[in-house]
Structure formats: C-alpha cells, structure tokens
Amino acid sequence: MKQSLFALLALCAVLPLAAETLTLPAPRKTGGMPLAEALSARRTERKFPDAVKPTLQQLADLLWAANGVTRPDGKRTAPSARNCQEIELAVATADGVFTYDAKANTLTRVETDDTLDTLRGDASVYLILHYDRDAQKRESAVVDAGFVGQNVYLWCASEGWGTVFLGTVDRRRVAAVLGCGEDEVLYAQKIGIR
Asked: DSSP alpha helices (H): ranges in 51-137?
C-alpha cells in the first residue's frame, strides 16, 4: 500500500499539472460613454499610483473590447487583414499571467515565475499583443495590433481608466513566458483601473 502511494506521488511530481482555465463572465456589451465622448476623453497615461486589481468581470469586458468575438461567424471587435484574426492576447495581473481565448471567453494560466510582474509595475493589467506567425505576415499583424490597441484606448476612456500603448517591450522575457518567438511579441499595453 505504501509503495503504491509513493509511486503515485512520484508520478504526480513528474507529470505536468493541467493548466488552470477560468471561464470569464459574459462581457457587458451595453452602456459606456458615447463614441464621440470617448474619442474626446482618450489619452495616454503612463503612471498608475492608485491602480486597483481587476475583477473577472472587468477583465471580461476589457478583453472583449480589445479583440472579443462579436458575431456567430467569429468576427471580432477589432478588424484584421483578410480576417486572419492572428492577434492573440495575454494578460498579466497581480493574480498571474493568462492567455485569452476569445472564442471560449476563457483565461488560461501560464505557468511562470514573476518575471512579468516587474513589467506590469504599478498598472492593474499588462496586456501583451502577440501574433500567430503562421497566420499572417508581420506587417499586417502590426496594423491589426494597432486596431486592438485603439479599442483598448477607447474602452479605457469610456470607463475612466488610464492606459499607455508600449512599443518598447522586453520581447525576450515575454516570449520566454508565453512560449513563443521573440518576433511574435508585438506590443504591450499597461492599464490602470481606478
């Protein structure tokens, strides 16, 4: 009996644990500020001294606004060249690093140390925009990432949150955490929730 228990414990120690997947609440698709007001309120904010941790509902709303699914045919809130939908999102919060599955409306934890926590700094959310190199040329992916970034800017303005779009990203560190190529990491966006 003891040998069986030890064998089971040894097996568990070498097998990878299943990734934790969180189902997000349905994103809220109504309300917010009229578009002209959001455009007027849109600004870049680099410091977030009073930022707070996001709730799952806030993450669901933010990620849906960034690049969520809007129709049964899989179309997204952000356009993409030839509808490749190559932009993928990862998010670092005080709770860890997650990848976002827009179709399933889920977050899957990425097993990592706290390497992205230093990049997140005082922000509530560190959003990472990367792409599937096989689905699209980098030039088109860069433009498509801009659409996602603008969605985030307008949504943050509507919510009264701060954000900054970052072209300077520690791509080596981010790629190591996400398990992708450095050239697939495009941009990041820091978001401060008040």
From this structure: 56-67, 117-120
- Report the length, in residues, of the chain: 194
Q: What Cα–Cα distance (Å) separates residue 26 from each residue in 59, 91, 102, 192?
A: 10, 18, 11, 22
Please give the domain boundaries of the chain with CATH numbers for all domains.
19-192 (3.40.109.10)
Q: Can you say whether the dihedral through the CA atoms of 122, 124, 129, 132 is positive or negative?
A: positive
| Distance in angstroms (rounded) separating the CA atoms of residues 40 and 36 | 6
Nearest CA-CA partner of 186 in 151, 137, 153, 152: 137
Please indicate whether residue 63 or residue 118 has the higher confidence score (pLDDT).
63
pTM score over 0.85: yes
Q: Is the model's pLDDT at 33 over the cut of 90?
A: yes
